[in-house]
Amino acid sequence: MTNYAAGMSHDKLGHEQTMAVAREAAGKVRGLLRTFLEGYD
Amino acid sequence: MIDAIAAKAPDFTPKVAMILGSGLGTFAEEVRAVATIPYGELPGFPQTTVGSHAGKLVLGHIGKTAVAVLQGRAHYYERGRADEMKGAIRAMAELGCETLLQTNAAGSLRLDMPPGSLMAITDHINFTGVNPLFGLGAGDNRFVDMVDAYDPALTKRLLAAAKAANILCHDGVYIWFCGPSFETPAEIRAARTLGADAVDMPA
Questions:
Q1: pTM for this entry
Q2: What angle, 0 to 180 degrees and rounded to 10, lies between the N-to-C axes of helices A15-38 and B152-164?
Q3: Would you call B156 an interface residue with chain A, using a CB distance cutoff of 8 Å?
Q4: Which of B16, B22, B168 to mutate: most A Cβ within 10 Å?
Q5: Residue B139 has pLDDT above 80, yes or no
Q6: Are B140 and B90 in contact (CB under 8 A)?
Q7: Cα A19 from Cα A25, distance rounded (Å)
Q8: How far is B194 from chain A (nearest CA, A)?
């Protein structure tokens, strides 16, 4: 999740915020994908 | 199309295809690459107009798993075509991929999933009025059963991997709007009533 959907918070929605949070969360996603793939058979 | 890929990576058979969404393109750096091919050299692959999408196919290994990583994709809102990824995804299947993983930026409809949370999609609501299977002929497999479209066994394995890595990962239903504008608050209220947990974020 990069933000709450429209109307659920007072934050203004925008591409820059989406990208910033996506970059911040990328480490968790990478860790999850790496763990999944290392156990894939 | 797969001839063009096979020429760059002879005898390489990926098992898992991955389409990386916004902010995750650098995951491809973790691949011990056998070949990297710009989409422009692959007939049928999309030409993405989104700056954060590199537009490259990376073939190689993560751990022991042979993977095909697509850095970037086309979005419906770019050219109004719902089927623009069809050629690339079919090529992955023809190459031997048995699993497709996709990531994307999303907006949360649940207060218990704040920004930064992860969610595995278990089902979806297509709210766009279009379908990537539009236009298929009678001989094609166009009447697709959408029950378990997101493989429950794979989802279980993904959630188990999250637990093993000590990463909180929710699961839920995703709703697809056309974009590129964000949804209106009224649309989001409707989506919550329909049972959605997350909505696409144009990025």
A1: 0.91
A2: 90
A3: no
A4: B22
A5: no
A6: no
A7: 10
A8: 15
